[in-house]
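Figure S4 source data
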Amino acid sequence: MKEDNPSNTFLANKHGTSLLSATDIYGPHNENFIPPLSISTSPSIRPILNPIRNEYESPTRLSKALRCCSKDSIKEYLVPGLQFSEDRRKTHRWIFSMYTQFCEVMEYEPWPLSEKPAYGFIKLMGIALQYSISTIRDDVISSLKAISRYRTNSPVPETVSHKMLVALKEVKLARKRYCLSEAYGKKEKEEAEKWKKEPLIVPDLCWILQCIPDWCIEKPREASLFLFAISTGARSHTCSHIKLRDIARVYVGENSTMMKVTINLVHVKGMFNDDHCVTVEGDITQKQTLNVVYWLEQFLVEEYGLSLTLFDEWKLGDLGNQFIWGIRKGAMRKRLQKRASQAGYPENIFGFHSLRSGFICSALLKIGNHMERKESVLETTAIIGRWDEGSECQRRYIKKAEKGTIVANRIILPDEVVESDEPFEKDLSTPCVFHNIKLKEVEWNNKSIIDSFNFIVLEYIKFSCSRLFYPYSCVNRLNNIAANRFLKNRSITKPKDISSIKYSRTIICEDLLSESFDIIQIVHQYLKGIEDYLDGKVPMIFSEPKIKPKLREQRAINPLFNRPARIMWTPSEDKILMEKFLEGISFKEIATQLPNRSPNSCRDRIRNIIRIQKRNDKFNEETRKAMPDEESNIREIAEVEDDVPVGVEEVEKMLEVEKDKA
């Protein structure tokens, strides 16, 4: 693989191994074709993303970048070409390999994209292979269009695009008929029901938040997150990417405690640099279950020490890049499902997207029988939730709310026969009736209590140990001392066969479940017995040998994530490492000859080289078995520059010897 020829750039994974090159997928290089530019280089070897601190008073991004990067690191920006993310390249490689195999079997010319093979390929994937509709719509069709456009340097004809959409509609219709047929058995129906999520309306969220006890330290975080999502219809992908700097404006009216907070939603579906503003309102002084501004204020103060009342005085700096809630989108769904289960709801009845459907359903239920306001509700929710007004995508959310709360015979029968002449009934919007379920008892078991308690105690002890330069092994010792003194101060004698920590947890659970204490008061009581140790008045006696300071790699700080940037290994370092290791020199001595490398880094690099070499050997062997035909258009795998071929068995034996010595 030539470095200076981007047309030969492999669409490779992070280890650089792939069956298909850019030329295979996007076609041969010619004057009218601009090949894609690989941007898979990690931030650690792109120092332009990791500028060092500049001594100038007001440096620009460019000045900081040019001071710390070399010419070689900027060369990739001088090469013309299109940029693709790693995920998109993987998708192109996957779709290209399947479509070309399909065309070979059916004896069609794959490129340029034509109606008949594209139509048959989509129907095959949707009906026979049972790929999801979203995968076909978002990945398959878009990748086929992109690859065809890059190979032919011309847009896909409208007739071909229309034919693929027709195939997608026929796949949807075929699946619907199959679900209604007798061939769709009980097992398939039960499996399909698992993926159906109910809309989480406002009464549901109110009950879930009320069931979270006040001593739960995560309540402000979760309450502010869930209330913001149901107030704006934001997806988990959007909420997980909101940063502190995205809080754009805080407005407080004169002689009022009502506060309006405007937040920029940058990441929305299909867009990664949007500027969609939403505003939420609430009384910052009133502790109410559904007051989103109150819970947001409590969370920001506890987590970051920032108050919305002092918004004009915020000086965030690098803290502005911090994600507000700090939870990944998958964890958001799990947290909501866990809280719903603890509140008595059936397992997996909700997903985080239920808050989005609950947003528009709750808006429809709020207007009740004022149907003349329905179009207004559809318009305003479309603006907030980024729907096309009145589209099928928007209306499918409200079908559940409409069908579940309308009393049918009120529409036709006279008033003296029915209870009311209003078609909507509010009693039908309660959680049990709306979802047709029976709530179980609220379950906050001992494990949930202990998890919250342990988190506060251990974080405080860890912080104190780092402040007083105690080794990390003292955390458990201090925790044991705190448990003993907690029981002693309460004049409680523990059984002989039970540890103090375990028995003290039993007492703590009883206190919290009896609602006679809150968790913060008990934490203070628990830690009161080790104040002298934490304040340094009583020195800790260490039985372990003196801990020597470990060699740390000197790394530049990545300002985007506020953490050390990883330094990639160079081929010259790998060569020195392998030579010294094969000579039998210890990792500690090798680290002295490699600047900014610790013994642990040298050991891990040796293991990575062996693992990659093994995988490449196995992959090559499987490829030869699977593709014996010499006329196959699959190319050989390019050799990775920073992988040094070694004798795997020999190095493994030496690693075992080093391990035994340690």
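Figure S5 source data
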Amino acid sequence: MEELDTARETAVARRVVHQVVLPPDADPDTLPLYVDFTMARAVEEAHPDVAPAEAGAEVLGRRSLRLDHGSEASFGSYFGAFPAGYWRRWTDVDEVRLSIRLSGAATVAVYKSNARGNPQRVRLIHSVDGVVDVDLTLASFGDGGWYWFDLYASDGPVTLEAAAWSVAGSHARKQGTASIAITTFNRPDYCVAQLRALGEDATLKDLVDRVYVVDQGTKLVQEQPDFAEAAAVLGDRLSLVRQGNLGGSGGFARGMTETLQAGESDYVLLLDDDVVSEPEGIARAIAFGDFARVPTIVGGHMFSMYEKSCLHTFGERVNRYSFWWGKIENTFDRHDFSLHPLRTTPWLHQRVDVDYNGWWMSLIPVEALRTVGLSLPVFIKWDDAEYSLRAADKGIPTVSLPGAAVWHVPWVDKDDAIDWQAYYHQRNRWLAAMLHSPYRSGGGLPRASFTGDVKHLLQLQYSAVELRLRALEDLLQGPEHLHATIGSTLTEVRALRATFPDAVVEKDPGAFPLTRRHRPSRKGKVPTAPGGRPRAVVSALTGMAKQLRAVRPEALEVPEERVATTAARWWRLSHLDSAVVTSADGTGASMYVRDPKKFRAYLVRSMQLHRQLRSQWAPLSRRYREAMPSFTSVEEWRTTFQANSTDESSEGQHA
């Protein structure tokens, strides 16, 4: 549709900032995110005596939809609706224009919502062929709300040829372009598929200057059979960079550095290697960044790769007292749009102001790189959250923009709190707190951290406790250890963890003997979570007492119970001598065995470390804060890149 396409290009007059798109190949799993057909089902359920019309809908392409006579479709959907509340809050845009091109006779109903999710019809239009333009004010969207339109094939079949939302280009700070930085480690198939999708999308051709693939693995992207074809689509916009494995933070820091050095782009877009992106979401993020009043980090949401209509979270914050991340109040994790559409889910209509956005998709202005620096040298965990906190201190906010998203493997199927990543969870949480906590001695962090150690001990997860304590010991070394160890700590951590029985995963379901309890469970009941604080205290005390007793010799060979990962909690495992525990992804199991000596030693060591950290909080925190400009600088990162270069390095090589 030429009228809509040229609007994106004519920035001074109007600029298309949000095209209405449909899923590639009309994927039925993602379709509910793009268009909502539940209106017809609701009418049918409300009036079962009325025969449904012989009607249907057909997705014709990325921007086109055909409705049979009597059919209806709502674009009050995640990717279809316009997030007016976000544009009202973060930009100077005061009105938006909806443009729709239709073939056939149709009725178009334009709706808006407020932050409470109450819908209101603002325009009803009867159209026969041609373009429908509707100018809409953003004045009433102070706390949230969306605009969308519903389409009715009221007099014969109708085809939606294209639709888009545009704003006055005079409100833009710039018309920017981006470089994309993808960090990958042994996921070449995912990475190549993503390169192909980015290269084939026409919308991104004028918006993306370069795609940097920072390959830190041994299964190289460029050795994939279909790499050449994907690379050909991107042409000289693709650059391959080889380096040793410095984790996500090292890979993304390299992408940031390459973007700064090239000097081509206004933004760097960080993308995980194992995601499927929506290219239109990338275009929306860049447009939003251009119109934001001040340089702004624009993040995208994450949907599940396995349940494609399921949203991970709508927005996240960092509790500065406990220094832990979590969802924003009055929002809900794992929201399924196929069951609860946007139009009928009130809490989705409030504007959510976040502290940070995950680096599965995050657009960072080059101004931020120059002002704030690069990512922390921490390998993985907390680099994304800390960066946004650091940016906010410099007046650069982060916005999680609805309608910009990727699909990612969910973390519910990972044991990252107890596997080798436990080291990075612990050290980097404390590091971020030392850099940004406003509370004396870290507020509630030391207590929460010590409680975490106790829970892991009661759950017989001694390997996790060892890694957590090693993390605190390394933290006490000061900021000098960050760059010095980023390339070597993973190997050491994996080797250390491998010495613990609870870290050994057996893939064979029959690897362990059948369970045999020493005595029957109390009153034949399966243990459950203690209800209320008094019962929790009693359970904890009895579980602690159990840890001091000797282990029955037969329990070392024959597990007392087989426990599913969802039930492997302190209140159950603390009362056992041994158990076989299933891994989170269900592919294996480990033997947990109670060890009184380890329990005593780790408990004492944890108490001593936490006492030491509390007493040294002020001077240690000051050291890290004063050194932060140095260890996040381009210069220090370049030294680290050089020290971790590969023999076959193809740094900056154009594919």
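DSSP finds 20 helices and 23 strands in the chain. Residues 2 and 162 are 10 Å apart (CA to CA).
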